[in-house]
Amino acid sequence: MSALADKIALITGASSGIGEAAALALAGRGSRVILAARRAERLADLEKRIVKAGGRAIAQPCDVGRRSDVQAAVNRAVDTFGRIDILINNAGIMPLAPMALCRMGEWDEAIDVNIKGLLYGIGCALPIMLRQKTGHIVNVSSVAGRKVFPGGVVYCATKHAVHAISEGLRYELAERSAEDGNTIRVTTIAPGVVDTELPDSIREEQTRAGFKGYVQSLRHPLTSQDIASAILFALESPAHVGINEVLIRPAAQIR
Questions:
Q1: CA dihedral of 68, 73, 74, 77, whole degrees rounded to 10
Q2: What gap in Å lies between CA 88 and CA 122, rounded to an integer?
Q3: Each residue of 153-180: pLDDT tens digit?
Q4: In the predicted model, is pLDDT for residue 1 greater than 80?
Q5: Helical H runs in the chain?
Q6: CB 186 within 8 A of CB 126
Q7: What's the pLDDT at 71?
Q8: Does residue 1 form part of some domain?
Q9: Is 225 part of a structural domain of the chain?
Q10: Active-site positions?
Q11: Which of 253, 198, 242, 187 lies closest to 220, judged by CA?
Q12: Among 20, 27, 72, 171, fewest CB within 10 Å belongs to which?
């Protein structure tokens, strides 16, 4: 039996891509999953697929840019199952464009979803985990959290923030563990190029075409299932083992 059996997992951005793959993987391990994302119809379909396969899932429409939505998702998990063991902060957007275009509305959106949405997830779930003295927070970042590239400056900045928040939280929880014995772990998953719908959030036409061309040039980009496997690796590690960061790229990706 998997160590994830009967764990309660909340996954943001669960309607497609990495979030969907993670939900299916966790449900397959016996976890009970709360599916949070904006696209309610897709969530409902995923919930049906998981239940049909013998799993347990609850669809919870959620815009992570709204603190009240995130709190409602956490409340749903606790009200239904009594606890929350795993939080996967996966929701994200990638509105790439040269800074000279000054697409400030998109900058706001990237900050709201990629940074504030992640912070809301932590802020709403962490008090539950602190009371339990156990839990695992997985923050999905990007290789862009380690590298900066033209056209992706703001996106890279948001993902650098994810790394800083994750490492700072890990540090604080490790210090606290020495005092109260909690086993709350923090993992950052930093994918390289993954073949998902994320490039569709690039509204600037030339940049979107260029990025999609780059994905195709790799011939074998990562799949969402590859990232879900990395997430499972971290989650299934023994409680005394902290998988702090996983940087995973296609073999052909240089940077």
A1: 150
A2: 10
A3: 999 999 999 999 999 999 999 999 888 8
A4: no
A5: 17-28, 40-52, 67-81, 104-110, 117-132, 153-180, 205-217, 224-236
A6: no
A7: 98
A8: no
A9: yes
A10: 155
A11: 253
A12: 171
- Residue 236 belongs to some domain of the structure: yes
pLDDT, one tens digit per residue, over 191-233 is 999 998 888 888 998 998 888 888 888 889 999 999 999 999 9
**What is the span of the domain harbouring residue 29?**
8-248
Residue type, 114: N
Residue pLDDT, tens place only, 60-115: 999 999 999 999 999 999 999 999 999 999 999 999 999 999 999 999 999 999 99
Question: Quick check: 27 and 50 in contact, CB under 8 A?
Answer: yes
b/e string for 219-237 if b means 16 or more Cβ within 10 A?
A: eebbbbebbbebbbebbee
Query: Among residues 253, 42, 70, which one has the least CA distance to residue 147?
Result: 253
Does residue 237 form part of some domain? Answer: yes
Confidence (pTM): 0.95
Distance of CA 180 to the CA centre of its chain: 28
Residue type, 38: R
* CATH code for position 75: 3.40.50.720
Domain count across the chain: 1
